[in-house]
């Protein structure tokens, strides 16, 4: 009598090389399923959009007669991709698919989210608040006005408050 045991994948491991990547440079993501029988089919998504692996998935013998499946994809992430997840899904039709993910760590210079005005009209002696929002990795973002005033943000946004002593007969603009 022949007895064939089937096993669904129960885990997926996703790794990223290098762990941190500069904007526009290449990063390789690897996915490996736990042993399954029949072998797992691995698929990739980035924000719900399918990604295509570099080559066909490879396999190797796994524990208890199962098969470990591996796949790789390469990306050139942009600043907006920092912190976003790339998901690998393993399924072989026996049970629910299992998912693993890796979040991208993309280093990049500051980019404006809410750009400050080029020029601000203000009455002499008045208090002035300029709101600006920028993102960078690593942070924090630093804001400077042309007269040397400097403010540091916690992560991405800051109101630069200039007191009445600063607003005298001079023009203040945020430097970019």
From TrEMBL:
Pfam families: C2-set_2
One of the record's GO cellular component terms: cell-cell junction
Domain of life: Eukaryota
Gene3D superfamilies assigned: Immunoglobulins
Domain Ig-like positions: 9-107
Biological process terms in GO annotation: cell-cell adhesion
Principal cellular location given in the protein's record: membrane
Record key words, sorted: Disulfide bond, Glycoprotein, Immunoglobulin domain, Membrane
Topological type in the membrane: Single-pass type I membrane protein
GO molecular function, one term: cell adhesion molecule binding
SUPFAM superfamilies given in the database record: Immunoglobulin
Intracellular or extracellular location(s): Membrane
Protein name: Ig-like domain-containing protein
Species of origin: Scylla paramamosain (Mud crab)
């Amino acid at each position: 009598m022949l007895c064939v045991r089937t096993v669904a994948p129960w885990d997926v491991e996703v790794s990223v090389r290098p762990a941190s990547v500069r904007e526009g440079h290449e990063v390789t993501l690897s996915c490996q399923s736990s042993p399954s029988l029949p072998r797992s089919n691995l698929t990739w998504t980035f924000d719900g959009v399918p990604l295509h692996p570099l080559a066909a998935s490879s396999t190797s013998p796994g524990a208890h007669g199962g098969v470990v499946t591996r796949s790789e994809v390469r990306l050139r992430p942009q600043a907006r991709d920092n912190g976003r997840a790339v998901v690998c899904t393993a399924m072989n039709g026996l049970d629910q698919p299992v998912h693993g993910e890796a979040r991208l760590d993309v280093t990049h210079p500051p980019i404006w989210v809410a750009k400050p005005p080029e020029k601000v009209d203000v009455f002499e002696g008045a208090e002035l608040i300029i709101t600006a929002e920028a993102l960078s990795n690593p942070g924090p973002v630093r804001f400077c006005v042309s007269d040397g005033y400097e403010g540091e943000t916690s992560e991405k946004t800051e109101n630069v408050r200039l007191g009445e002593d600063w607003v005298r007969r001079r023009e203040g603009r945020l430097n970019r």
